[in-house]
């Protein structure tokens, strides 16, 4: 069961169909669009006063990583389209025939919902919603080529990463890269969400879930290079879309005082849910403030929704 207030609960009728075959290139693509992370030791996790103990954000611990490369931005609709053209890949949302769309702001007029999520009724299951029709039939990404691809499951993200000669980041790699060298700050730019009144990320402004003032300039997703990057060159680490990472979800595995949880950690060896990081354009302090760097959540590996995407990493040469 999904533990996140930000995500709809998974549907048991979706099934566990296998991912479609994909071709893998001989070498990593697009290293020019990747940022080099030097590796070393950083302080992972947090104990923010407005954090969620049930999410396992703590304890704060020193983690050591090897150098790696990470995409400066989330994978775009244009890039995912290239993958689909090259491989014929079919996403989980297409296989299932539906995906979750945010209802108050996100559904086309006349598009009927299959049902609403029980725990989070602003999420509705829409037949025909998938990455190329993100609000369901009649919608399009034609004007959103530089926006992050959404309605992709963890399995879809893993398939794309393999085709690109890359992989999904570990949770530790994602957080180290997202912090940009800042130690224990709440956001990639510091502790103040909007310093001098300037918006630094794409999250919900106004009253959630029925009124978004768009003060940051965006209603839904924003182009992946929107807002200033962090000190390592990464854009939109906080907000815009949740990002899949490779780790299985646990709230206690990383709390063990053993070397394997501190040296290049890969997360638990098995589980039912996968970790997502970074928050999304739907996050708001009144309900879900998981756009903080230490915040974390989870979803089922075959789950998709209108606010979840990913970025990739590769081992440094």
Strand content: 15-25%
Low-pLDDT stretches: 1-5, 12-23
Shape: globular
Number of helices: 5
Q: Mind sketching the topology for me?
A:
Layout: E1 34-37, E2 40-44, E3 61-65, E4 68-71, H1 77-87, H2 92-96, E5 98-102, H3 103-106, E6 115-116, E7 123-127, H4 154-163, H5 171-179, E8 206-207, E9 211-212, E10 242-248, E11 274-277, E12 297-299, E13 308-309, E14 313-315
Produce a short descriptive summary.
The protein has a domain at 19-74 and 152-309: paralog of FGE (formylglycine-generating enzyme). The chain has five helices and 14 strands. The protein has helices spanning 77-87, 92-96, 103-106, 154-163, 171-179; strands at residues 34-37, 40-44, 61-65, 68-71, 98-102, 115-116, 123-127, 206-207, 211-212, 242-248, 274-277, 297-299, 308-309, 313-315.
Give a written overview of the molecule.
- About 10% of the residues lie in helices and about 15% in strands.
- With about 325 residues, it is an alpha+beta fold.
- The chain has a domain at about 20-75 and about 150-310: paralog of FGE (formylglycine-generating enzyme) (Alpha-Beta Complex), CATH 3.90.1580.10.
- The chain has a four-stranded mixed sheet with strand order 12-11-10-13.
- The radius of gyration is 18 Å and the shape is globular.
């Amino acid at each position: 069961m999904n533990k996140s207030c930000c995500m709809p609960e998974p549907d048991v009728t979706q099934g566990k169909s296998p991912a479609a075959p994909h071709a893998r290139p001989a070498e990593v693509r697009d290293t020019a669009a990747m940022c080099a992370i030097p590796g070393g030791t950083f302080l992972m996790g947090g104990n923010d006063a407005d954090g969620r103990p049930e999410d396992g954000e703590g304890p704060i611990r020193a983690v050591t990583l090897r150098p790696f490369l990470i995409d400066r931005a989330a994978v775009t609709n244009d890039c995912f389209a290239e993958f689909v053209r090259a491989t014929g890949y079919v996403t989980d949302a297409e296989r299932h025939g539906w995906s979750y769309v945010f209802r108050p702001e996100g559904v086309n007029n006349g598009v009927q919902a299959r049902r609403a999520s029980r725990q989070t009724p602003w999420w509705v299951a829409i037949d025909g919603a998938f990455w190329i029709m993100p609000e369901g039939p009649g919608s399009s990404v034609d004007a959103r080529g530089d926006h992050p691809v959404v309605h992709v499951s963890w399995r879809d993200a893993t398939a794309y990463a393999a085709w690109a000669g890359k992989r999904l980041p570990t949770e530790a790699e994602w957080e180290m890269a997202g912090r940009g060298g800042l130690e224990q700050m709440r956001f990639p730019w510091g502790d103040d969400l909007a310093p001098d009144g300037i918006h630094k990320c794409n999250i919900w402004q106004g009253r959630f879930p029925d009124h978004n003032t768009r003060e940051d300039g965006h209603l839904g997703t924003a182009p992946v290079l929107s807002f200033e990057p962090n000190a390592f060159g990464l854009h939109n680490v906080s907000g815009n879309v949740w990002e899949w990472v490779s780790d299985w979800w646990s709230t206690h595995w990383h709390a063990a005082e053993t070397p394997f949880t501190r040296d290049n950690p890969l997360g638990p060896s098995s589980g039912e849910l996968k970790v997502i990081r970074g928050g999304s354009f739907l996050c708001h302090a009144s309900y879900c403030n998981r756009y903080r760097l230490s915040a974390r959540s989870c979803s089922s590996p075959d789950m998709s929704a209108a606010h979840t995407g990913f970025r990739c990493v590769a081992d440094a040469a």
